[in-house]
Amino acid sequence: MQYMTKLLTHIKNNSKLFQEPELNYILGLTTTQIKDLKKEAMKNSFIHEIKREFFLSEEGEKFLAENPQISWVNEENAKRPEINLEYLKLEKAPPTVTRAIRLLAKHLLESEELKENSIEYYLVRELLCAKSTCAKVKKEMSKIILKDKRLKLVDVFEKFTTAPYGLTKSIISVLLLDILSKNLETIAIYENGQFQLRLTPLMFDRMIYCPQNFEIQNTIIEDIDIIEDLSKVILPCKSKNILDLTKGLIGRIRGLNKFALGTEKLNRSTVRLRNVILNAKDPISLFYRDIPMVLENKILCECDKKFIVKFENALSELENCYENLVNELKDFLFTAFEETSRENLAKRFEACKDYLGDSELKILFNNINELGSSEILWIERIATFVNKSRVPKDWSDNDVADFKVKVKEFALRFLTVESTVSTIDESCLNKDFQTLLTKLNNLSKREKNIILRKVAVEWNSKVS
Fold first, then answer.
1. What is the pLDDT of residue 147?
2. Of 102, 216, 84, 64, nearest in space to 154 by CA
3. 268-302: b or e for each residue (b if 16 or more CB lie within 10 Å)?
4. How far is residue 237's CA from residue 250's CA, in Å, rounded to a whole number?
5. Rounded mean pLDDT of the chain?
6. What per-residue confidence (pLDDT) applies to 165?
7. Residue 256: count of CB within 10 angstroms of its CB
């Protein structure tokens, strides 16, 4: 018989109640609840129908007299607002309300339209409109959330679920969602201590079910002129919003490949800058203290233009380190094979291809011969084959060292083959070497055999 008093009271005041298009909102119940309630009222003869209108019977009047409507507000919860939507008063939110809050999150965070006369539509009317009974509570909640102090989300739920508020988790969730959605540019959100770049409906869902994992903080910072100069380096347009700068910077750092995120072959200050950004726990501390201390050993308000230059250079070094790695791998390959261009190297391998009994040299030749690909893709393919592992973007500094050792081995094996098949263009050799070859050719057969024996002994001693 729950909610029967409410139904009968409305029927007493409006005989055409069941013809109202907003019946669900008026009674604050779901369609199923209303159908069951109406059926129960008819069964107990509380109401009777005349030409599609419903009126209270004597039994209905008697029921109302014996069961007056009880207010949700009480002495213990004096700050609790009166709520019409009955399903918001339940300690455990029914699935329909949970789904409605998810859809409301999509509306407020992603601008999805609300379906008219849906539960999520009623949530807005009941809790978020200007004349809502919750306006005062929402204002108090906003004051707490918008303080420039890191706040555990579980403490917010704890404060408003207990006296003198006594709100349910459903009501708190909707009010919290509205506050966060209106302050996305200044409120930082942390999940398990990690700063989150963007509030999504899925994340908000986790915030409701596991508030103990989340913290929030308003990131308003004092007006420091140098912040605008920083924003020019990080963002496409100027900004004084510390959260914009944080999101932009972390987004750029996380967009780097694995090599850039792990290599130590950078300036010491650049490595430290990368590490403090990756481990950032607090946007304000990151910009006000952590980054300036790494680059200048000062706090932000003490820094000048030199700090901006150092910051820009360090960020540029990070973003260009993979390109520098590619150039380093290519230069090392050419040096090892005593060559200056990929085209000439391909020609040399082509001239020796019939003598390449080594299967690995054959595969290397196929990769070197891919002259139609870009410079970067060309060296990436060769490097991936040489190391027989991940692509260079995922390498560590140890992988780079392994590449150089293996390239030297490949070069030695190839140069040995090349020297025995007489395919070298002697005109490319320097004059001293050409003179030496001429002298060797003029030696007697006995003298040549002696030299060959000496070379063989020397070679075997090096190999062993």
1. 87
2. 216
3. ebbbbbbebbeebebbbebbbebbbebbbeeebee
4. 17
5. 91
6. 96
7. 17
**What CA–CA distance (Å, rounded) separates 135 from 297?**
47
What single letter denotes the amino acid at residue 187?
Answer: I
Give residue 432's Cα distance to chain centre.
Answer: 61
CA distances from 36 to 81, 88, 153, 395 (A): 27, 19, 38, 65
Does 164 sit behind a cis peptide bond, omega within 30 degrees of 0 on the bond before it?
Answer: yes
Q: 């001429």: which residue's tokens?
A: 438
Instruction: Give Cβ neighbours of residue 162 (< 8 Å, ≥ 6 apart).
Output: none
Give residue-wise pLDDT tens across range 121-142. Answer: 999 999 999 999 999 999 999 9
DSSP 165: T
Tell me the C-alpha distance between 398 and 396, whole Å. Answer: 5
Q: List phi, psi (to 5°) of 458.
A: -65, -40
Q: What is the pLDDT of residues 169-225, one digit of tens each?
A: 999 999 999 999 999 988 999 999 888 889 999 999 999 999 999 999 988 766 677
Confidence of residue 284 (pLDDT cuts 50, 70, 90): confident
The CB density around residue 417, as the number of other CB atoms within 10 Å, is 16
Q: Tell me the pTM.
A: 0.71
**What average pLDDT does the segment 336-352 reach?**
92
172 within 8 A of 211, measured Cβ to Cβ: no
pLDDT in tens, 66-119: 999 889 999 999 999 999 999 999 999 999 999 999 999 999 999 999 999 999
In one letter, which amino acid is 289?
R
Q: Decide if 366 contacts 382 (C-beta within 8 A).
A: no
* pLDDT digit string, tens, across residues 157-185: 999 999 999 999 999 999 999 999 999 98
CA atoms of 164 and 171, how far apart (whole Å)? 15
Q: Which of 59-68, 324-333, 374-383, 424-433 has the lowest mean pLDDT?
A: 424-433
Give the DSSP H/E element, type plus range, for residue 336.
helix 305-336
The count of residues in the chain is: 464
Question: What dihedral do alpha carbons 447, 450, 455, 461 form, nearest 10°?
Answer: -170
Contact 333, 407 (CB under 8 A): yes
Specify the pairing of strand 53-56 against strand 187-191: unpaired
d(CA 222, CA 168): 36
Beta-strand ranges (E) seen in 161-267 are: 187-191, 194-196, 214-218
N-term to C-term CA, the chain: 96
Are 59 and 42 contacting, i.e. CB atoms less than 8 angstroms apart? no
**CA angle 192–299–240, rounded 5-degree value:** 75
Number of other residues whose CB lies within 10 A of the CB of residue 439: 9
Question: Any idea which residue has 């009126």 for tokens?
Answer: 55
